Amino acid sequence: MALHAPVLVMKDSMKRESGAKVHQANIQAAKAVADIIRTTLGPRSMLKMLLDAAGGIVVTNDGNAILREIDIAHPAAKSMIELSRTQDEEVGDGTTSVIVLAGEMLHVAQAFIDKNYHPTVICRAYTKALDDAIAVLDKIAMSVDVNDRMAMLGLVKSSIGTKFTGQFGDLIADLAIDATTTAGVDLGQGMREVDIKKYIKVEKVPGGQLEDSTVLKGVMINKDVVAPGKMRRKIVNPRIILLDSPIEYKKGENQTNAELMKEEDWQVLLEMEEEYIKNLCAQILKFKPDLVITEKGLSDLAIHYLSKAGVSAIRRLRKTDNNRIAKACGAVIVNRPEELQESDVGTGAGLFEVKKIGDEFFAFIVDCKDPKACTVLLRGASKDVLNEVERNLQDAMSVARNILKNPKLLPGGGATELTVSATLKQKSSSVEGVEKWPYEAAALAFEAIPRTLAQNCGLNVIRTMTQLQGKHANGENAWVGLDGRSGDIVDMKERKIWDSYSVKAQTFKTAIEAACMLLRIDDIVSGIKKKQAPGASAPKQPQIETEGDADNEQMIPE
């Protein structure tokens, strides 16, 4: 027993040492990712110029857009990048904050890892800190009336004030609020659901000025009528039929052979095709439509019958666009023309018009009575500017959606984080056992956000942070924070610098849960096969143990 015990102890210490090295490597990787986008936090932040895979240039300060283009091999760093994407999909904003906060949480945990604290102890303290932080958010949150346009405008403006389009004032905030209120659906109990991806389409058309951008009360599609000379390009109060089936003769599923014995049979075959299309068109024309839109093909003969009846037609439309038109004008997408009913015809649109913008034709179905889908038309000098404006608009729409879903506000400018930090510092004295120190470290980590804001404003960080901590001592002055533009320490209510409750709560949860996950990793095992160098000998076949080998093994005495 005495012979083997030291060996076992040595193995255990080696295991611990390898775990500590993995923790250090993970923390360093996470800090490296956080340092990349740290300078893009706040209204006076820096921009990053990225070269994407296709060789194009992207200029942005959006955390998710930057990290999306970065190619990193370290698995912990990849995990950090996923955080930003998750945050963007869930709430659409706070993509930079979540990375900075997660990086800081891991940074303060490094001291405890070096002192041989068990990662589970640190994670327990962090989870407790997260619960207390969310309780603080609930306490200082302020309700907002979603019907008060000025309050909504102020909130969206302060959320996108850190972005490139912040310089254009109310423009993007107005577009975002108009779009989300148009496409919102009442869920009852004062709550609204907005499906930004499905029912709000952003159409970018280079040319003109950014001020020409607008939210259409309807839908715009990059299509022209199929026979421009014969079909009307402008119809007031159109009756619209939407189809999900082709108006042409059915082709065989696979290769089809038809054997014709007489010459007249060929004529009969053609007449059958014509008769089939004529019947299809007759079933459609029975409802006196002004516009027929189909996702599939439209044969020349069908075009002839429709144009003869004075009906305009558009073919090969995207499924998503067709869904938006249905929501905007109140039509129902029909799979078979035989099953058409009067209730399927859309009569909610006020105007159908085809316009030429630049070199392309666009069809507008606008002035709808009660549209539940809309198109945001963006104009701008170049594609790069339009792409950045679109990214900012998506964030603004997400913020507006979050407020409609959960109408609660929190102070911006780092005030929320400072209040949470001060409250957790007070509570740390009541935490028992070794968890007290990691809990207190988590409280300090929240100060990373205001500290980074102060750095990006070019202020004296130590002096500014000392003043802010003094104001927030004992958890008082919850609404005092840092104005990122002027660098003043002011009341956030006066400057109307606000944050959405949903964004802040999601940021805290994502950052702390991710930090806990990375801390609990004690080994990284690669499943990727290394490429064999040319001329190298083939790898040895694994040896299979037999019963005899097992008997010959030396057993460690108990």
TrEMBL record:
Keywords: ATP-binding, Chaperone, Cytoplasm, Nucleotide-binding. One of its GO terms (molecular function) is ATP binding. Belongs to the TCP-1 chaperonin family. PANTHER family: CHAPERONIN (PTHR11353). Residues 531-558 are annotated as: Disordered. This is T-complex protein 1 subunit gamma. InterPro entries: Chap_CCT_gamma (IPR012719), Chaperone_TCP-1 (IPR017998), Chaperonin_TCP-1_CS (IPR002194), Cpn60/GroEL/TCP-1 (IPR002423), GroEL-like_apical_dom_sf (IPR027409), GROEL-like_equatorial_sf (IPR027413), TCP-1-like_intermed_sf (IPR027410), TCP-1_chaperonin (IPR053374). Molecular chaperone; assists the folding of proteins upon ATP hydrolysis. Known to play a role, in vitro, in the folding of actin and tubulin. Coiled coil: none annotated. It is found in: Cytoplasm. CDD domains: TCP1_gamma. GO terms for cellular component: chaperonin-containing T-complex. Gene3D superfamilies: GroEL, GroEL-like equatorial domain, TCP-1-like chaperonin intermediate domain. Transmembrane segments: none annotated. It comes from Panicum hallii var. hallii. Its main location: cytoplasm.
